[in-house]
Design a protein that fits this description.
Elements (H helix, E strand, L loop, with lengths): L1 H25 L6 E5 L6 H17 L3 E5 L6 H9 L6 E6 H10 L8 H4 E10 L1 E6 L9 H10 L5 E4 L5 H12 L6 E4 L3 H11 L4 E5 H9 L3 E7 L25 E8 L4 H16 L1 H9 L3 E2 L5 H21 L7
Parallel strand pairs: 1-2, 1-3, 6-7
Antiparallel strand pairs: 3-10, 4-10, 4-11, 5-8, 5-9
Length: 332
């Protein structure tokens, strides 16, 4: 009887061994994850990807390989991700410009249906921004009201800096000027991004802009740029005298620019859930929180995978409203 039991057990093990092996191989992730970033190294999105990647790699034991693919306002990165197998091994880490505005204003350039081709895994962080004016050439305004009064008194004489035509700071300033009474200020795009806009501001070639706090805080503290307001839910601890846009009378103006993780539609739900869980564990790590705090980034993950989808839909609806209200010629 004992020999027969042993024989049956051995036979059963032989039968289920392939299934056990297959399940072990199917465990996600079991190889490195490629994450496409639609910008060059060193910017906010790249920084977020690398901070998150370090922790996800520790949690999963698999690599989190950042691939920088700048260009075409994020279209190149989106299309590369969507064309990849929907298996959780090719993702995209993008922001409000690339993953909410670009799919709307460059819809004719896209070779795909964005809402049917891309799913959100989770929002990661958002980034406070300043409404700034230059301190060069004795530019006087020190409050939002003083700035709008100055523009009304001297229409058409000022320029505002943007990191690119159709970027969220471009829309933020255009919408602010519209809300303040259709103020007449010309835009000055700079292809060098935030660094280029800062130089324009320091020289006084541009007199105003919206830029994130991490990029401009040093210049504000040095007195070379002047923060009129902060786009955030509350005042910043290090800048207690700078009011929020809401306090300045423009509650719905300005973008707390988010960074989020995306995957191709069709990625199996268990894979997305595993990914969501690993990323949220990474966001809870004290070391991760500390690194983001140094950059003035707020850690703001979605509460669930399902809520990430509804959040993205709400963002798309919001930017449909803004891009309709503000006419910016972006070309196609």
């Amino acid at each position: 009887m004992r020999r027969w039991s042993t024989f049956v057990l051995a036979a059963l093990l032989l039968m289920i061994a392939p299934q056990i092996q297959a399940q072990a191989q199917d465990k996600y992730p079991n190889r490195p994850i490629k994450v496409i970033v639609p910008y060059a190294p060193g910017g906010a999105t790249d920084i977020v990807a690398r901070i998150i990647g370090d922790e996800v790699q520790k949690i999963t034991g698999q690599g989190f390989v950042v691939i920088n693919k700048p260009g075409a306002n994020g279209l190149l990165a989106i299309e590369e991700m969507v064309k990849s197998p929907p298996d959780g091994y090719t993702l995209m880490l993008g922001n409000v410009s690339t993953n909410a505005i670009t799919p709307i204003i460059y819809a004719k350039k896209m070779n795909l249906n964005y809402t049917k081709s891309v799913v959100a895994v989770t929002r990661l962080v958002d980034v406070p921004a300043f409404l700034l004016v230059t301190a060069a050439n004795g530019f006087a305004p020190k409050t939002v009201k003083e700035f709008t009064d100055y523009v009304k008194a001297k229409p058409g004489t000022l320029r505002y800096g943007t990191v690119g035509i159709g970027s969220y700071p471009h829309y933020d300033m255009a919408y602010f000027l519209k809300r303040a009474g259709d103020l007449n200020v010309a835009s000055l795009p700079n292809k060098a991004g935030a660094a280029g806009v800062i130089q324009d501001m320091l020289r006084g070639d541009a007199q105003a802009t919206f830029l994130n706090v991490a990029s401009t805080g040093g210049q504000v503290q040095a007195g070379k740029l002047r923060a009129l307001a902060v786009v955030n839910r509350e005042r910043l601890k290090d800048y207690p005298d700078v009011p929020t846009m809401q306090e300045a009378g423009f509650a719905d103006v300005g973008t707390v620019a988010w960074q989020a993780l995306f995957a191709p539609a069709g990625t199996p739900t268990p894979v997305l859930e595993a990914l969501y869980h690993a990323v949220n564990l990474a966001l809870e790590e004290p070391a991760t929180v500390a690194k983001f705090k140094q950059q003035y980034f707020n850690v703001v993950p979605n509460k669930s995978l399902e809520q990430a989808q509804s959040w993205l839909a709400e963002e798309m609806a919001h930017w449909e409203k803004i891009t309709t209200a503000v006419n910016i010629e972006v070309g196609q």
